Amino acid sequence: MNLNSGSYNTVAPASDEIIPARPPPIGFEALQGDEILPPLPRAEESEAYNLDQEANAPLYRKSQYFDDGIRKIDYVLAYEDGKETSHEEQKKQQRRKRFEESLRNQDLQLEYSKKDVSFDRKTNFIKIHAPWPVLCQYAEILKMKMPLAENDMEEFDSCWSKCPNPFELDSDVVKPDPNYFTAPFNRERMEQFHIKNRDTFFTDAQRSRIVYEILSRAEFEDFGTERKKFGIKRLQGNAYIAAFPLHEGPYQSDHSIYASGPINDRHLLYEMWARPKMWYKYQPLDIIRKYFGEKIGIYFSWLAFYTNMLIPAAIVGLAAFLYGIFTMMTDVPTTEICEPNKAGDLIMCPLCDEFCDYWQLKSSCNYSRASYLFDNAATVFFAGFMSLWSVFFIEFWKRRQKEIEYDWDVSNFEDEEETIRPEFEATVTRKRINPINKTEEPYVPFWSKLIRYSTAAVVILFMLCLVIGAVIGVIVYRIVIIAVFAKQKVISQRAPLLTTATASLLNLIAILILNWIYKKLACALTNLEQHRTQTEWEDGFTLKMFLFQFVNYYSSIFYIAFLKGRLSGSPNDYKYLNNERLEECHPSGCLIELCIQLGVVMVGKQAFNNFVELLLPKILNWFQSRTIRDAQKHDHNRVPKQWESDYVMTELQPLGLFYEYLEMVLQFGFVTIFVAAFPLAPLFALINNIIEIRLDAYKFVTQLRRPLAARAQDIGVWYGILKSICIIAVISNAFIIAVTSDFIPKLVYKLEKSPRHDLTGYVNFSLSVFDIKDFPNRSRPLIHENITECRYRDYRYPPTSPYKYQYTIMFWHILTARMAFVIVFENCIVLLAWFIAYLIPDIPHGVKIQILRENYLVKEALFRAEATKRAKAKAEETKQD
């Protein structure tokens, strides 16, 4: 067969024997006088793209292969030439030369696309192809699980599966993949694997992963020192400016996908996953996993599961909020505050020292009604419901995760398949014999780990103190600014609301700034700890970042929920910080302020993240693709090659998926930990997540370079974090209901003080009396007119009592009731959680059966291989005799 540019003859192998293959001299290699290389073998059944057979094929298909049209591009490197006389450029050239020689020594095949033919006339591209023997060798090293036999287990369809489902994807477009039992790949038993076609046996994602493993270990030398280093990570941003696998082609087509079918998996994902009109459809998770790898696939599986679980939570939360709306006008305490002839005429003590005036309780009517929306009987039920919901969430996700581990062949990845990080091998010099496989490997001794982890812990503790300092700064701002607002006649009545809103915005800005600083610090500390595998590194980094983010985002909310108004003292003895009086809660409680803080931080954070995730890549891509647009203006017929189109796209950051998880887990914290104060949080989270799934899909498919198809067994340390959040949520909701809301005081009043066991007179009961003559000089208002006494929120004896301004017996009754509620609430939820965990098995029965069936088939394959080996040995002995 005669091919054009870069052509050579190919000969099909006579048997299944693996024949090493190397490319002909290409580009710069052809000028070096290398020996003539043997022809590349090609399987007879190959379906690889061929220029002779398909001369008019679309350009995107040609862009997936070398110039010969046979060898598929598995990875691309890009670099720019500097001044050849520059010492720095000489170092880069030598590193590239040695690195590429190392790749060829590993039997990878390279093809060069020089800058003269690129759009910007300055970027050189190196296309990399892994031949069949290399793929087989590294598939065995990496213990890739490959198809062994078709799954012959019977699937029983439920009655529900036969009903029309509007959420299902069109099965004519998204065809289900064949289901196979799998086993770790072994070249000696290759005939037992389900190999129909060598060109399609390994998916594009698997091929790129294999090439990346070689790239991450390929050697190069430092210019002048001749010191060997290795890994593409060390060269990126230096000798090379980019390294990436290719997308499978364009994501759009002139023809309808329903009429002509998808032109590639990227097109299929765009049409059936990334488009906004598909917002109500299930995600094609198997296609996502096939295209982007298991790690990204598991993230979207978890996000889909979480979003589905939010539906009942959102419905119940909305019902609780509607209950507040419908009963708001009939609430007795709120009505008493709003009516002048009742508690509305009560004179309240000033909100700040000297310049603040007395005020009537009826002026806070609207504030009180708004507080009731989030502090009513339905709130207690909803908090209990969400505590149980979090338990169900963890248990059901555990089952779903086991299904994913089996279906995607990652159940033993971390224990059996994961390899040592190249950075660990490069930095750790001590060696020891692995007690399991008896091979020498680098290790970090216990004393070194202790020093490194202790250093990291001290730095983390310092940063957490810095965050708490920032929160205290916001608290001081609140204390100062509420006095400033209260002095202004126009806005004095809205001083608490304005203070909360502006302090929340200030807190959000501090959060974003500290996040940027801590990200770099956490990465450096995790590198200091020298983790052995990539999973261990990511888990260490995740734990540090989440601990910081937890304190960063939630500390101000915890302050409002549990501390504000409880440290301020009484009018005769106010407490001060930095010579400023500590702020008090409104007579209607602090719950509405907690709700505002939650809303500002939650919505502000998600709005900022959506900008960073979608708009920023779009803007960057528009700027980076200007050279392509300018070139097309001069030559309208010129179409960019696939590697050129992908090169100008934004690269997914190495920790890009971490921030996706972090955003959702922080949202999970808002939804569970403080849901008693904000029953609409699950509804807002549900709406956000529906949008988030499609925005993330659009970003991954259209705006980002194709990321490396990394493998993962589960969501990693995030599962432990979610369980911890669920425990904190039970405790937090119990204390919010008992301490922050007025549920317990109202309940005690009904049972002990109300003759009719209702809330008539509750407002007067919850306010204590203060004689203005007892004000300290620094707290005494300058203007007091004819007022002799004022009210404040507390349970203290009046000035006429012998126990003047001391806590009443009712205060201790209410405190006891609060603590009793916390204990009962927590123990009930814990007992129910244990019972639910006992009832729901961790592994579904069907998955257990399939695992046993697969293990049986693997054993049978081993027995057959041994029997075949013995038969061949006997035949050889007989032949020799």
Briefly characterize the structure.
This protein has 28 helices and 18 strands.
Task: Note down, in words, how this protein is organized.
The two termini are 45 Å apart. Mean pLDDT is 79; it is low at 1-57. The strands form eight sheets. Strands 2-3-1-8 form a four-stranded antiparallel β-sheet. A two-stranded antiparallel sheet has the order 4-5. Strands 6-7 form a two-stranded antiparallel sheet. Helix content is 53%, strand content 7%. It has 28 helices and 18 strands. It folds into two domains: 27-144 and 185-246, no CATH class; 282-745, no CATH class. It is α+β, with helices and mostly antiparallel strands and 881 residues long. A hairpin with a 6-residue loop joins strand 6 (219-221) and strand 7 (228-230). The radius of gyration is 34 Å and the shape is elongated.
Strand content: 5-15%
Mean pLDDT: 79
Helix vs. strand class: alpha+beta
Approximate shape: elongated
Spatial strand sequence of the major β-sheet? 2-3-1-8
Q: State the helicity in percent bands.
A: 40-55%
Stretches where pLDDT is under 50 for at least 5 consecutive residues are 1-57
First-to-last CA distance: 45 Å
The radius of gyration over CA amounts to 34 Å
Q: How many E strands?
A: 18
Q: Main β-sheet, in a few words?
A: 4 strands, antiparallel
How many domains? The number is: 2
Count of helix runs: 28
Question: Please, what is the oligomeric state?
Answer: single chain
